[in-house]
Amino acid sequence: MDKTQYHAVYSGIPNISLSRRLIQLRMGGRTSEILLAFFLMTIPMSLFSALLLGLVFYYQVDSTDYSVPELRLGSSTAEQNVIYVDISATTLTTVASWSSTVAPILVGSAITLISYPVSEQILKAGERGSTQELPTPWQLGLMLKMIASGGPMALWNWLQYAWGWRGKKEMQGKPMKLMTVILVLALALSTLVFAADTWFHFTTKSVNLSQVYPVTNSHNTSVGLLPACYNVNRTFQGGCTLNSAATAQFLINGAQAQEVVSNLSATMRINTLNSGSGVFTYVGTPPRAALASVDYKSHSWSLKTQCAPITTKCIDPENIYGAGFSYKCPFAMEGRLSTDSNTGFQNQFKMTYFTNSSAASNYTGATDLANPYYFAAIGVVNQNLGHGPVLSADAEILRTTHGADLFVVFCNTSVYDVAYVSLNGTVTSFDTTPANRTLTNIVQGSQQYTRVGDPSLVQGASIAASVSTTAQGVADHFALTYSQAALGVASAAFVAQPAVASQTRITMLVARVPVAPLTCLLLANLSLALLGIVLVVLAGLAVRGGEAGEVQARLSVAGLVAAHFEGRRAGRAVDKVEDLF
Q1: 147-180: string of b/e by CB count within 10 Å (b at 16+)?
Q2: What does the pLDDT look like over 471-480, one tens digit per residue?
Q3: Nearest alpha-carbon partner for 140 in 182, 104, 173, 107
Q4: Among the listed residues 142, 154, 145, 138, the one whose alpha carbon sits nearest the alpha carbon of residue 187
Q5: For residue 362, is pLDDT > 60?
Q6: Which of 49, 96, 242, 336 is most buried, most CB within 10 Å of its CB?
Q7: Does the keyword Membrane apply (predicted)?
Q8: How far from each other are the two terminal CA atoms of the chain, in whole angstroms?
Q9: Beta bridge pairs of residue 272
Q10: What pTM was computed for the model?
């Protein structure tokens, strides 16, 4: 049936006549239907968006950073374009999912609203006799499917008609095009809400976030000098760490140093750091519960000792005899050591310090030492254990007559001022600069003249010979032991001081909300609400005169059913669709 025939039939049926003269009583209830569809399209999506946005910003965790640059937490800090929310990620994704649940339902509300402007267009086209603008019966059926279902199947039926119709196909008028456009737009926005919600679900995760705040309590993690030690210009200088007596040299503040050497101090600990520049020992802070959540930058001092085995340069195997041996090095170090249990310890240890790298002079008492300083050491260890078989093939490790391991090393020790950073219990920055001569004199003189660290050195030499497989391995192990012992003894001159900078770190479980999917979801939600606002304005303008509402009611499924089954009753003027039956 072409549009001319359809218009004739359409106008000749009195119960759905579009003539203004035949409409004596307008159907009511159109305003309530329009408002209901409007509220359905705008209120839920607006509320869901407001609720989601309110939760995000009410529980948002502000990124705090009170730290100096060195105390920044790196990858643990807040990312750009991400909002951290102190609420379960599941709660946020649940609220977000409400939008994608409701969005498909709102397509029907959009079609309901646009049906009023469409009805107005049909009314005006009928009054003008513009048959081109009137929908054909098949097109009207498609429009009724859109109104009834407002879903993808209605769009699919239209697509089949638009591109798959095999018979003679009439041009689609404005009413058909307008309703189809709104259906496509509403479905697209509904799909966008679903896609944005899916994106939001996949990207919103629970993560650990570290926040930093100013430290309220002072934590003494730095190390400074006692006032009496500010100016030590030679190794053998009393008043700082040395107290000279007639027969011995006493270590001032020795109890503190002994605790540090024995790893028993509550304020200082000798730590080791292996970096690309070598192995450093430094005065750090022992583990404390109060520091578990504190990051800090501290000042300290560090030693790095390097040793090389020179046994063959100092000892001729022919000079080794039952109870001892003699030694003569190509520098200022020669003498004899006894391993007789009646005259000395079976584990023997001998150290000689030099004024400079030439090792030509071994009297340093009046010397203001340069940094680094130099010394040599002889170790005779493990006589009761026996000579290590692994070291037997190394020429730099000799064996005494009674079976002890014998070695000689030449070493240098560098003293450093250190600024180090501890983040989350890990040293992340360790900057060293050569220390002044005062520190060099304190470190060398404290151990040389008091020999408080000798037991640790003898034990370290014994362990070095036991666990090493080469003479250089023995030298390296002894070098580390010396750094630990010498720095521990020198701690008699140190005092714990507040950190250079510190911060309290709190790790919390938060929801990581990327801005992009959140924004996309909110825009998709509000787009549906905005569409509802536009459509309600169009619907309101269409029903101002009342006739468009009448046409919309009579062209509804209920109106057409009444027209086909209720006869003349359906042609009466009524104020409710129900009165047509």
Answers
A1: bebbbeebbebbeebeeeeeeeebebbbbbebbb
A2: 999 999 999 9
A3: 173
A4: 154
A5: yes
A6: 96
A7: yes
A8: 29
A9: 281
A10: 0.68
